[in-house]
Design a protein that fits this description.
The protein is an alpha/beta fold. Helix content is about 40%, strand content about 15%. The two termini are about 30 Å apart. Bound molecules: 3-methylbut-3-enyl trihydrogen diphosphate (2 copies) and magnesium ion (MG). Magnesium ion binds next to loops.
């Protein structure tokens, strides 16, 4: 919990490679439709692509990769699609967790797990336990996750622990209770599939993330596409409220300079 950081409390150090990349993996259904395949074929390919995204991020030196797999609003989909997605999650965990562990990857799930079948929650708990001390990359899957849910669960747990805070609390009081308290805030947010919206993903944590939207559908988002997103990120001037002139005053060796100069 001591890693808790906040871009609104302190200006984070900026590096050429984003420490934390958060992705809305969108476009599986359209990928399938373009090929006259059922939507579920797109989801299958989407899971395959998670494997390559994890590899590409680990090779690039990204420390945290967070993937939106199922939103709190995705229960509104047809029951057979929802049930297929749950099955796919179970199968992916059964097949992939050992490999993640071999590759020194820590696995985490954020979201309201109370609605999942016991089999799935057990697989998640086991995977988190097995990989908890791994250090190469932290892979977080957001499942039945919603940014609003996250804030509400954080406030609820905080007030349960510290009822006196009902009279008023500060950002730092709340931070340890947010579901990504173990990670720095995302530096780079990517949404595939062409939509330009957040869809109730990490509402709190994205406060100062650099946003990148691409028309590429998730099953087609490969290592080259990731490179392009990171290249775009490296062109951004991350000011965190300051002026551009203030950034120029920062000494050349400082990590607060423009992202590209840190390369
Ligand atoms: C994203 O792909 C995967 C999930 C939301 C589970 P979609 O299923 O939303 O694909 P499109 O947006 O219909 O193409
Ligand atoms: C967002 O995608 C959620 C995930 C990728 C898991 P959606 O496809 O559900 O988002 P909307 O409905 O187009 O906003
Ligand atoms: Mg979609």
């Amino acid at each position: 919990m001591s890693t808790t950081t906040s871009s609104t409390i302190a200006i984070p150090k900026i590096r050429a490679i984003p420490r934390h990349v958060a992705i809305i993996m969108d476009g599986n259904g359209r990928w399938a439709r373009q090929r006259f395949l059922p939507r579920i074929a797109g989801h299958r390919r989407g899971v395959d692509n998670v494997r390559s995204a994890v590899r590409a991020c680990a090779e690039k030196g990204v420390e945290f990769l967070t993937l939106f797999a199922f939103s709190s609003e995705n229960w509104r989909r047809p029951a057979d699609e929802v049930s297929f997605l749950m099955q796919l999650f179970v199968i992916a965990l059964e097949q992939e967790v050992a490999k993640l562990h071999e590759n020194n990857i820590r696995f985490k799930v954020i979201g309201d797990l109370s609605r999942f079948e016991p089999r799935l929650t057990r697989l998640i708990a086991d995977a988190e336990q097995l990989t908890r001390d791994n250090t190469r990359l932290t892979l977080t899957v957001a499942a039945n996750y919603g940014g609003r849910w996250d804030m509400i669960q954080a406030v609820t747990r905080m007030l349960k622990d510290q009822p006196q805070l009902a009279h008023g609390f500060a950002e730092a009081d709340l931070l340890p209770y947010l579901s990504m308290a173990y990670a720095p805030e995302p530096d780079l947010f990517i949404r595939t599939g062409g939509e330009q919206r957040i869809s109730n993903f990490l509402l709190w944590q994205l406060a100062y993330a650099e946003l990148y939207f691409t028309d590429t559908l998730w099953p087609d988002f490969d290592a080259t596409a990731l490179e392009q997103a990171i290249a775009s990120y490296q062109q951004r001037e991350r000011r965190f409220g300051r002026t551009s002139e203030q950034l120029q005053e920062v000494p050349a060796e400082s990590p607060l300079r423009r992202v590209t100069e840190g390369r």
